[in-house]
Amino acid sequence: MLAVGVLAGLSLLSLLAYGYLSWDSLGLGPGETEATRSELGEELGAGAPSSQPHIIFILADDQGFRDVGYHGSEIRTPTLDKLAAEGVKLENYYVQPMCTPSRSQFITGKYQIHTGLQHSIIRPTQPNCLPLDNVTLPQKLKEVGYSTHMVGKWHLGFYRRECMPTQRGFDTFFGSLLGSGDYYTHFKCDSPGICGYDLYENDNVAWDHDTGIYSTQMYTQKVQQILASHNPRKPIFLYIAYQAVHSPLQAPGKYFEHYRSINNINRRRYAAMLACLDEAINNVTLALKKYGYYENSIIIYSSDNGGQPMAGGSNWPLRGSKGTYWEGGIRAVGFVHSPLLKNKGSVCKELVHITDWFPTLLTLAEGQIDEDIQLDGYDIWETISEGRRSPRVDILHNIDPIYTKAKNGSWAAGYGIWNTAIQSAIRVNHWKLLTGNPGYSDWVPPQAFSNAGPNRWHNERVSWSAGKTVWLFNITADPYERVDLSARYPDIVKQLLRRLSQFNKTAVPVRYPPKDPRSNPKLNGGVWGPWYKEDEKKKKSDKSKGANKQKKNKNKKKAN
Fold first, then answer.
1. Which residues of 50-207 form beta strands (DSSP E)?
2. Beta carbons within 10 angstroms of residue 22's beta carbon
3. Which residues lie within the region annotated Disordered (predicted)?
4. Nearby residues of 560 by Cβ (< 8 Å), 6 or more positions away
């Protein structure tokens, strides 16, 4: 037992030193014995597991569909490959084309049209956030006894204190509020002269952590601390939203070692960032095993949208990129890894969407879904774990009524059912329909990454006939969206346009307010943070009301 204690102590030191450890180095790999696990569990106070599983949701940022080893990438991702191979790969899995929409749909289980966040992202200077009347996943998990923690990128608004993560269901928060920033200094400029610091611990600016640590490593260290201090007998929800591999393209020098041969500098930096992220997820997995969580845990990995070729990402062989409704913008890398899965080592080709995690995880947590919430997601655990058919038959990718209208779109082009000038996209069974301006539509093959960046001359482009504003694809037969079938199947086009129209009747108004000059960090101590003071407004209104009363009283006296 003394030897076991010494080994455990050394393992703990090596884990805290944040080395890239192999799974077997702690004696915690797939081949470990029950005796080894029980001894370590006793030493760490793991005890009997709760019937409610520990939920670890890992969200990568801007990872391209091709950018994982098991999708044929030249970038090595041994951890992701191993976790996915031993779990269930989601190969018909969809997210939204940008940061805020995917995060809002994950945390609410609702489409953008039902939260008012249909257009673009929440900008740092906008007085906007995820509407406060939306119940969030961590709030529901807290109701059934979960400890809830968030580490990483929020990007769901912060102009009021009520919008902060700790006010939306998380017991603790450590991370950034904005959509991007420097990985070392945590500094962000939204525009010239509008710059500030962006790192928080709970509701306070985390100046103490301004030590130049690369954010991927810093966030992982925080996750390790949370797991080390929490009691594994009690269920935990851990939402890890890494900043990587979003621009700016920065990575510690040692991660470039295997990628010197990549000529394109953006792709090389991106590869180094992804290598560091893969190592981080390895260390999170080790910590789950080390501290007694793993056997009763569900690990979900997802990208928030497609990759951005100009920033090193690759979605090949899919069409389009981040910010578009082509498959390259919305079809994501995703998998579930868990000892609780029944069909381990399988591939799920059933339709799955990011809104599905809300009801799925809440049901696994033995929570209740309120009838008045009206979710757009489905419980797909049996689909993933047992290989059953998905209850989902359609996905509203989005309807954005204020996006730049397609010049030649019209009601006539939409058979009088839909105005095809409006940007929208929908999937029903095998069919996908796009209207309006769906965004950058090139295919960007790996050889397109020249020294100067993705070279447009190497890209495959299609020059559509003038006036085209409707596309139809059979995604099951044609996942690369090469054959437009809208002219061949007008009846199917009409059916999908009617479905769009039905969805649109349930949409709430778009929330996309103009910039507020009070958001400038210079007015808030040099940091990005809540600037809207509701109390001050009330005080001002109360004062004005009081002044009006005094004036009225004086006027009455004068009249008397």
1. 54-60, 88-90, 93-94, 147-153, 172-176, 187-191, 194-197, 200-201, 204-205
2. 12
3. 508-560
4. none
Asked if 209 is an active-site residue, the reply is no
Residues 27-78 pLDDT 10s: 344 334 333 333 334 344 444 556 899 999 999 999 999 999 999 999 999 9
For domain 400-506, give its CATH number from 1.20.1250.10, 3.40.50.720, 3.40.50.1460, 3.30.1120.10. 3.30.1120.10
Residue 51 tokens, joined: 């019937």
Candidates 54, 71, 99, 276; catalytic one: 99
Q: What are the tokens at 244?
A: 């990587």
Q: What is the DSSP pairing of strand 346-348 with strand 88-90?
A: parallel
**Residue 155 designated active-site:** yes
The model's pTM is: 0.87
What pLDDT, in 10s, does the model give residues 470-517?
999 999 999 999 999 999 999 999 999 999 999 999 999 999 999 999
Q: Which residues contact 1 (CB under 8 A, 6 or more apart)?
A: 39
Catalytic member of 54, 71, 114, 155: 155
Site of tokens 């489905």 = 378
Q: Which backbone phi and psi does 543 adopt, to 5 degrees?
A: -60, -45
Alpha-carbon distance of 433 to 431, in angstroms, equals: 7
CATH 3.30.1120.10 domain residues, the chain: 400-506
Is the distance from CB of 513 to CB of 127 less than 8 angstroms? yes
Closest CA to 356 of 347, 344, 369, 372: 369
- The residues that bridge with 152 in the sheet, in sequence order, are 175, 241
Distance, in Å, from the CA atom of 215 to the CA atom of 251, rounded to the nearest integer, reads 10
- Report phi then psi at 93, rounded to 5: -110, 130
> Is domain 54-392 in CATH 1.20.1300.10, yes or no?
no
* CB environment 518-541: b (16+ within 10 A), e (fewer): ebbbeebeebbbbbbeeeeeeeee
